Amino acid sequence: xxxxxxxxxxxxxxxxxxxxxxxxxxxxxxxxxxxxxxxxxxxxxxxxxxxxxxxxxxxxxxxxxxxxxxxxxxxxxxxxxxxxxxxxxxxxxxxxxxxxxxxxxxxxxxxxxxxxxxxxxxxxxxxxxxxxxxxxxxxxxxxxxxxxxxxxxxxxxxxxxxxxxxxxxxxxxxxxxxxxxxxxxxxxxxxxxxxxxxxxxxxxxxxxxxxxxxxxxxxxxxxxxxxxxxxxxxxxxxxxxxxxxxxxxxxxxxxxxxxxxxxxxxxxxxxxxxxxxxxxxxxxxxxxxxxxxxxxxxxxxxxxxxxxxxxxxxxxxxxxxxxxxxxxxxxxxxxxxxxxxxxxxxxxxxxxxxxxxxxxxxxxxxxxxxxxxxxxxxxxxxxxxxxxxxxxxxxxxxxxxxxxxxxxxxxxxxxxxxxxxxxxxxxxxxxxxxxxxxxxxxxxxxxxxxxxxxxxxxxxxxxxxxxxxxxxxxxxxxxxx
Length: 481
Description:
alpha/beta; 13 helices; single chain; eight-stranded mixed sheet; 32% helix; 21 strands; seven-stranded mixed sheet
């Protein structure tokens, strides 16, 4: 047998193992609200090849691929436990078990590592929380996809309604079509049908009412059986407390804005300051995509090195706020053709840092250039540190942050030498550190941070909604602090 034959045989064997993992992962998710992760990446509803590719990601930890033969025993061990709702990272289980020298069996070690999710300590299933989308644009449709994906056993977030302005004949059919197919993010993973008679879109069995309204104050959500819902305003039309309060109608308990909030509206970046949200807070903002991209790595660098000052330059994909061809726009440059020009514009991300990181004393400035790509942006974060360091030290630190810290869902890391923007379409992280582009000299560090300004940001929005709704379940093993 040749070496190539050996490689192919090994691949087929790993395919078979990954295939055996799928029903176990699905059953844990449906029946127990357990989400199986591998180094913070969900394995729920993933294909055989996706599971194998996610295992390959572990090369960034020890320089070698994590094998499914290594993680399968931990997955099987989970099925023997009386688990409550939780997120369990079998990649971290395998990594910590490898470093453990007590001689425990896989079953014994797993039971100990996830003890908080079993027995008297486990969280009981919570009643599902209703969610309403106000607006159905780029972010609204991606948030809808994520809500439908995470419906799981039906005990988490439930997308109950979408509120839009009437668009004329076949409006609901056209909106369903935009949810079904996306030129950047591809096909919706599942089935979508339209019930025109009842003004509803049925997505993977989830009935979503389409409500037509020109003003928030005209809607009574209880008339649609919606109660204590979280409303996600993705229009950006209202950004202060007074405007957003219009959404607090019968059936709505909280309002989450997918744009930077103004005035005293809290700007929340999940992973950094989400735990500061007061239980009785009814209105909050998820800040901007760029704020979400820079704040987690900025916090990580400040925690380890101290940051004295910084500047962020974001090279941002164009958005629907710009014109396809030159035309009138209230902003000075955004009226010029988006797909034909680089457009210098402003960003509020730097000033928003103070809201998310009030303990950061460093002055952060910022600017932005819109460029002719439809998605994925890059933030260049230029920092003066409180102490000198080296490129190798910074990269090792950020790699570990991306793998084992409480910020591992926000910060990703790539060492691919040929990485370009389109590689990060669909990334679920707030930003991705590009190791090859990182520059460090003495007390100066320049980080290049890729981010999917649509999908990665939408994932951050969902994390905030999960947290304030009480359906963000704990992760085991607990991340290193």
